[in-house]
Amino acid sequence: MPTGLRFTDKTVLVTGAGSGIGRTVALAFAAEGARVAVAGRTTASLDETVALIEQAGGTAAAFTADVSREDEMRGLVAATVDRFGSLDVAVNNAGVLRGRNGTPMGDVAVADWQAMLDINLTGVFLALQAEIAQMRTQESGGAIVNIGSNLGAHKRIPGAAGYQATKAAVSALTRAAALDHIRDGVRINAVSPGASATTMSMRPGETEEERAERMKGASPLGRVSATAEIAAAVLYLASDDAASAVGTDLVIDGGASA
Fold first, then answer.
1. Which stretches of the chain score pLDDT less than 50?
2. 190-201: buried (b, 16+ CB within 10 Å) or exposed (e) per residue?
């Protein structure tokens, strides 16, 4: 791996790294010299991410973990440090959207509400606690980036109450944790994407071509964001270039919430 890159000899942990934004973020960190621990619940997709990183000359390892379980998040951080020697950056990306699009809040299934709370919010809380516990012991501290959403704190739409509530809470949790732990040497920020080139932005039965046509009128930018554009924002906030960014919630949504 070439020297002079922003994350040479750094260890980065990415949750939800088996696909979509998480996979792109993991690949981007590896391309900039990081040793990447990719985490999620599905072994096969994580192994695919590791293979892509290794094919490009990078270093990565896969770890299965459920972000909603405290013991598994503590174990994930311990396994990452045992494998690579440190935890310098963490990206808490795991998230779900449950239920049918457009379901009014009064009709949301309690099971769907609970699943989004468990993964989108409690999962970030548990990840933060495990990551901070390690980073505050390191002389170099660390940087954490939580993946939020433009829906919730920045914009609301009908029919997504549960998802928006959890993502708004991620924004608030990020800011509170950032204030609590910056003096520990742990710098915490968030990136809040809008519609991006993942399956989550597609309506049921919609093709990529149909989504592209819809987005011409639905977004000021006229298209979804590429996952690489989201990754670029994550890497910026995790890097020394953003050393004074503390508690930032960086919205990348093509102007949808402007």
1. 1-3
2. bbbbbbbbbeeb
Tokens of residue 157, six digits: 């739409």
Instruction: Please report the pLDDT score of residue 230 as a whole number.
Output: 98
Answer yes or no: 163 catalytic: yes
pLDDT at res. 4? 65
In the chain, % of residues over pLDDT 70: 98
User: What's the chain look like in SS3?
Assistant: CCCCCCCCCCEEEEECCCCHHHHHHHHHHHHCCCEEEEEECCHHHHHHHHHHHHHCCCEEEEEECCCCCHHHHHHHHHHHHHHHCCCCEEEECCCCCCCCCCCCHHHCCHHHHHHHHHHHHHHHHHHHHHHHHHHCCCCCCEEEEEECCCECCCECCCCCHHHHHHHHHHHHHHHHHHHHHHHHCEEEEEEEECCECCHHHCCCCCCHHHHHHHHHHHCCCCCCECHHHHHHHHHHHHCHHHCCCCCCEEEECCCCCC
For residue 190 the two structure tokens come to 């968030």
Just give the CATH number of 11-252. 3.40.50.720
- The catalytic residue among 30, 160, 163, 187 is 163
Quote the CA–CA distance of 59 and 204 in Å, as a whole number. Answer: 36
- Residue 19 in tokens: 């696909």
The Cα–Cα gap between 39 and 172 comes to 24
Is this structure's pTM higher than 0.85? yes
